[in-house]
Design goal:
Blueprint lengths: L1 E9 L6 H20 L3 E8 L3 H9 L4 H18 L6 E4 L3 H17 L2 E11 L4 E3 L18 E10 L5 H11 L2 E2 L3 H10 L5 E2 L1 E2 L18 E2 L1 H6 L1 H4 L5 H4 L4 E5 L3 H14 L7 E5 L2 E3 L2 E2 L10 H8 L1 H11 L6 E3 L1 H31 L2 E2 L4 H24 L3 H22 L1 H6 L3 H22 L4 H11 L5 H9 L6 E2 L22 H5 L3 H5 L3 E11 L7 E6 L5 E6 L7 H4 L3 E5 L5 E3 L2 E3 L2 E2 L1 E4 L2 E4 L11 E2 L1
Parallel strand pairs: 1-2, 1-11, 2-3, 7-12, 11-12, 13-15
Antiparallel strand pairs: 4-5, 4-6, 6-8, 9-10, 13-14, 16-17, 18-19, 18-21, 18-27, 19-20, 21-24, 22-23, 25-26
Helix pairs in contact: 2-3, 11-12, 12-15, 13-15, 13-17, 14-15, 14-17, 15-17, 17-18, 17-19
Length: about 625
């Protein structure tokens, strides 16, 4: 059994890129487990109680329920538009959930884990969290979101969180449930500073779940986090025993503490098993800047998916950033991945296989002699595919995709190396057809493993090669490394090339362009540097990555688009001229801190170099 959950998203605003990222990872994991043959449940939904929601509804002259109905529908609509294959769409306003939370609260109360007292503390409405004075920034600001907190003093029920401190640490040590693993240290440090009992009710607003009637205290509302976390179990309804505990909770790093400290303590209190894994991912920025409405740089997932395709959007989010790290969204980087990886390596391989098989053998692709002639290539591809499985099971989505594309590269390189068109000319039909059989089997195996991330594209490949993506074929092609025969039919281009977006340029007359002031020129810093290392960037035909030495042995990494004109190894040891005070940029996923100068000559780029060897860091002026 596999039970996968996203957070139930708070309905204080419409869904954004971060929500889409979590949900796409969860969808990929759920599809992967179904492919492996596991009975799988995938839950997503919305968290709809709390003071922040009550205030938002009031500002819009709406009732909280009307407001939450509207925003929750926006989330559900987006997931349907992005073809997210969830099993449960849960809402905390559902009556079955309300009844379950009240039952859990009563159980904690009867166990002696809840007591009544007075609470005074700094409350952040935005984060729905209390903080001590020492935790605040600038005396009044929330350490998590930076907004002003409110000093509250009210009667409250408390949960004995401190009672479970040692048990939570023991769980971390014995089960190692936190992914990525480096996040565990943050949690351990937080707990070892001492857990304080948690205020779990409010009396200052009304929008939430009332205490169980057995406690007879109507003025209290249950704390939104205690309410929200139990949705993971309440939504299973009659299938609780079958699917609980969850295999993995997927969350953003900002809510890891609630899921990895509060949640296990609540579960321990009501004698329920703990989830197997909790995976916390990072945040997304846009071209280096935090997204905000005021800056006008918020990414709308539907707009990106409509422009570039759902599957290209999915691929970029999963491939661009290691799980747990923050990511930077750039449309040009998305386009680069479409062109270099999805189009060149993936879609083009299908086109080549179909074209060659139809030309050389009427579309019939056979496994005959593949093992005799190309076993080394097949073994290498399988190595990568096996690694991809391990990476995905540990939520390393970027490495999962990277390894699959290495397997695809084996097939593409084999075509370039053995040149089937020449084999046909030399009357070596068996070798040519076996090569096509090798490539088709690598593509079929890769497509099965890629199908959780790119379900529609992989289905088109399976139809074009006339095989089925299924658990049975997963076992045959991946687990047992069997080889298939295929019958190739025509297929549409899966990922057409996309033009890089160019910033609009203002027209400047030539005479105006030439006239700059001496103080403008003095701002430019050009220095001499020695190339310590130079490498081609995988997936790019034109980019080289340089390690340059400046003065005082300072090392700079610079990316330059001159790979078509220079061999990387020939440039090591040469001196070049570098614009060193250029703002850092990310090019094709690699940091570039400067610009190597070159001149355009007869459709070529020629490096600008010193006439003789001079000191590194020498200033050109």
């Amino acid at each position: 059994m596999r039970y996968i959950t996203t957070p139930i998203y708070y309905v204080n605003d419409v869904p954004h890129l971060g929500h889409a990222y979590t949900t796409i990872i969860a969808d990929t994991m759920a599809r992967f487990y179904r492919l492996q043959g596991h009975e799988t449940k995938f839950l997503t939904g919305t968290d709809e109680h709390g003071q922040k929601i009550e205030q938002a509804a009031k500002e819009r002259n709406s009732t909280p329920k009307e407001y939450t109905d509207k925003i929750s529908a926006e989330f559900k609509k987006l997931w349907d538009e992005l073809e997210i294959n969830y099993d449960i769409y849960a809402r905390t306003t559902d009556q079955t959930h309300i009844d379950f939370v009240q039952a859990m609260f009563l159980k904690m109360w009867q166990k002696g884990d809840i007591y009544k007292d007075q609470y005074e503390g700094h409350y952040c409405i935005s984060c729905e969290s209390f903080f001590t004075k020492s935790q605040l920034t600038n005396e009044t600001c929330c350490p998590d979101c930076g907004k002003n907190t409110t000093l509250l003093k009210e009667e409250s029920y408390f949960f004995k969180l401190s009672k479970y401190q040692d048990q939570i640490l023991k769980w971390y040590e014995e089960k190692d449930p936190i992914l990525p693993k480096n996040k565990k240290n943050e949690l351990v440090n937080f707990i070892q500073n001492g857990l304080k009992d948690l205020s779990i009710t409010r009396t200052s607003f009304d929008w939430g779940i009332k205490l169980p009637k057995e406690i007879n205290d109507d003025k209290h509302i249950i704390y939104v986090w205690l309410d929200a976390l139990f949705i993971y179990i309440s939504s299973l309804k009659t299938q609780k025993e079958k699917f609980w505990p969850a295999h993995i909770h997927l969350v953003g790093k900002d809510i890891l503490r609630f899921h990895a400290i509060y949640w296990p303590a609540f579960l321990m209190s009501v004698d329920l098993p703990l989830p197997k894994f909790i995976g916390a991912h990072g945040w997304w920025t846009k071209e280096g800047e935090k997204m905000s409405k005021s800056k006008g740089n918020v990414i709308k997932p539907k707009e990106i998916a409509d422009t570039y395709g759902i599957e290209a959007f999915r691929y970029f989010l999963l491939r661009e950033v290691p799980f747990g790290n923050d990511g930077d969204f750039s449309e040009n980087m998305l386009i680069n991945r479409i062109n270099a990886e999805l189009s060149n390596e993936f879609g083009n391989l299908l086109n080549r296989i179909i074209g060659m098989s139809q030309k050389y053998n009427n579309g019939i692709i056979t496994q005959n002699k593949v093992l005799d002639l190309y076993k080394n290539e097949l073994d290498e591809a399988m190595q990568y595919l096996k690694l991809a499985i391990d990476y995905l099971e540990n939520l390393q989505c970027n490495r999962y995709l990277e390894e699959i594309f290495k397997a695809l590269s084996v097939a593409n390189l084999a075509i370039s190396k053995y040149e089937p068109w020449n084999l046909i000319k030399e009357n070596k039909h068996d070798e040519a057809n076996a090569l096509i059989g090798l490539c088709a089997n690598i593509l079929a195996k890769a497509s099965i493993l890629l199908s959780p991330a790119l379900p529609n594209s992989c289905k088109k490949i399976s139809q074009a090669l006339n095989f089925e993506i299924s658990t049975i074929n997963y076992e045959k092609l991946i687990i047992h490394n069997e080889l298939f025969d295929f019958k190739a039919t025509a297929c549409e281009v899966l990922f057409p090339k996309v033009e890089i977006k160019q910033e609009p340029k203002q027209e400047i007359k030539k005479e105006e362009k030439a006239k700059i002031k001496i103080e403008d020129f003095s701002k430019i810093e050009i220095k001499v540097a020695t190339v310590l290392d130079c490498q081609n960037i995988e997936g790019s035909e034109k980019l080289l990555k340089f390690q340059l030495e400046l003065e005082n042995k300072e090392i700079r990494q610079v990316v330059s688009g001159i790979a078509k004109y220079y061999k990387a190894s020939d440039l090591i040891g040469k001196q070049v001229c570098v614009l060193t005070n250029l703002k850092k940029a990310k090019i094709f996923g690699h940091e570039s801190n400067g610009m190597i100068l070159s001149a355009k000559y007869n459709d070529k780029l020629v490096l600008i170099t010193p006439e003789q060897i001079i000191d590194n860091g020498a200033l050109i002026g």
